Amino acid sequence: MAEIGEEITIKRKKQYGLCSKLWCLRCMNCCKADDVSILTSRNRKELSVKLMAKYQNAIQLNPEEIQVLDVLILLYTLDEKSWAYQYLYQCKLISNDESPRNDLEFYIPQLMNYLVFHEEMLNENISQFILTSCIHNFYFAQLVYWTLHSISAIVFNNQVTEFQKVKLYLQNLVKRMVLNHETNYEIKEQDEKVKELISLYGTPQFEQQQLKCLILPEHIQLSKYIPLDQEEGYDFMSCINFWNDIISISDKLKFADPKIISLRADLSLINTRLPANVYIPFVKDQLRHYTILNIVVQETKIFSTKERAPFYICVEVYNVEKEENKFEDKRERKNSEFNVELSMFSDFRSQSNLAMSQVSNQSLGVSECYEIELSREQKRANNVVLDFEKIGQEIFGEDSNQISERIRSQSPYSHFRSWRLVHLIVKTGDNLKQEQFALQLINQFQMIFQNERLPLKLTTYDIQSLGPSSGIMEMVKDAATIDSLKKKLNSIDKDITLSLFFKKYYGANLHKAQRNFCCSLAAYSLICYFLQIKDRHNGNILLHKSGKILHIDFGFFISISPGKGLEFEKNVPFKLLSEYIDVLGGTKSELFTLFRKLFFKGFVACQKHQDQILLLVKMMYSGHGYTLPCFSKGEIAIHELESRFNPPCSNDGEISVFTQNLINQSLDNWRAKWYDKFQYYFQGIFY
Q1: What is the C-alpha separation between 677 and 684, in angstroms, rounded?
Q2: Residue 480's closest CA among 423, 545, 386, 576?
Q3: Which residues of 200-209 are buried (b: 16+ CB within 10 A; e: fewer)?
Q4: Angle, CA 342 vertex, CA 338 and CA 348 arms, to 5°
Q5: Residue 164 CB neighbour total at 10 angstroms
Q6: How many C-beta atoms surround the C-beta of residue 683 within 10 A?
Q7: Strand 470-474, strand 463-467: pairing
Q8: Could you read off the pLDDT of 267-276 as tens digits, one per residue?
Q9: Any idea where the PI3K/PI4K catalytic domain is (predicted)?
Q10: Single pTM value for the model
Q11: 6 and 167 in contact (C-beta within 8 Å)?
Q12: Which residues contact 102 (CB under 8 A, 6 or more apart)?
């Protein structure tokens, strides 16, 4: 990329693995002779011709019939792109639910990747399409802004390289959006007491004065959010400015002391400017259609590290249209019954964290002999008399519904029929573009499982990169890391295994919990194999209250592993410990047989729809190159990914043998066990 590439010095290009002509490693102009990074290894011309025939032969198409991924393939592969431009305008633009996704909004990262890295921001057809779409839909425009802002700079070894062309494009886009999305607000008459209550709610002054007043939805005066360092703002920038203020708090928090006091003071200051026209940019549960009322300051928690200070916030939100239309679904009808008398308003109470005991003795390992282990566990079960319901509450923490009820009872907005509480984590100093990309792929895998009607369960959560090294993510509630679970159990009795915990905690619901565990374990085993997700210690694996397992933190996948050369997890297809099998009832149990069956069927389904994964990966790699850590091995990583979908098998029988061998190879693999031990001795993460 001529001009964008000129912004990076030769030295930096070598650091990133960039070619001398273009910013990206696998550009179409300088690497055509050996170009397998765009799309699949099949003939590109043949593929594009097939897709063209598919759509040109159709008499009339509606947006639901056009596969957005097909259009992106045409965009990336055709030399003459006029048809691709035409189909772009016919695609469904956004989605109001999370699944299945066949809208351009879901593929904004790939679309912006093409504009920035393939067209150098010079393609007038794409630019005009984006501008038209942004004018047409406010949410689409905001996501385009955040995506471009996130790739407008590269942060590498604490050095920042900015791309001025992208920044200039963003400036021009904002100017147009400000003109097109400005609103004249109706000024409402407000009672002075109500006005004071709204302005002070969420601040220390509100608690001190113990203000009490009934706030109705019609009392809320929604207007643009004014950033903390400015005296005026614009509608289009309202939500952007709000999240910029939140991110700036995280940036300076790592230098604050004490951090929690600084954080709560800054959040209280933001609360003085709420409610305002700001929202959470997540599609899940139509969350972006809800307006932020207040940040619950006293619930905030900080997850400090040496270099970063990510923090947790929960926010009160409501849906303006549902309040105005008096709309009630089942959830609203249930909520509308939850009326709180004014006398119930009380001071916020901080919720102290439950201390997890640190035990110096090494926890007992799982016996290699299943029969002996099960026998020991049965003996322990006869002797242990513990309140496992209470232990479970301490492990999983306060139930999310209970948290909502507690906070709602103290809120002046409690009677809003559409009131909700949302839990978020704010992060800076991390490359959330890669984390967001990983969740996009996981969503794609889940859609494959759903399309094939398989009961495989992946827990998808929303994440949005808001800048080159910052963003927000949905916090998974009602779940605990295996690490914290084991610490708690170990502090009670070192002989309490994961299997015994399941039996005692779930009781009559044991089989349902075991089945949830089985279906989720098989699903995550598959994606950990295909995407080579590493760093799978017990701090990154969670158990949900329903019994399903889930994974978080995708800083290492496709071609990058932790360990600085040690690579404990190398050649481990996926993490499958004998304690997981014990939860299912042992190697001869029906549930372990179901696990093997689901793994095989899931593998076949993923192989059948592999292009839905491979295309997204290759599109991103064709632009970002080595600048995303997951592509650190370059072209080799792409070849290896494709080979994992296509083992040397000629029929389902051979695939069945292959998948069962993967399971056998993973079961109690010594590398996975040693990685857990390494994390225990150096990080204190239990195994």
Answers
A1: 9
A2: 545
A3: bbbbeebbee
A4: 85
A5: 11
A6: 11
A7: antiparallel
A8: 999 999 999 9
A9: 398-670
A10: 0.84
A11: no
A12: 64, 67, 68, 92, 95
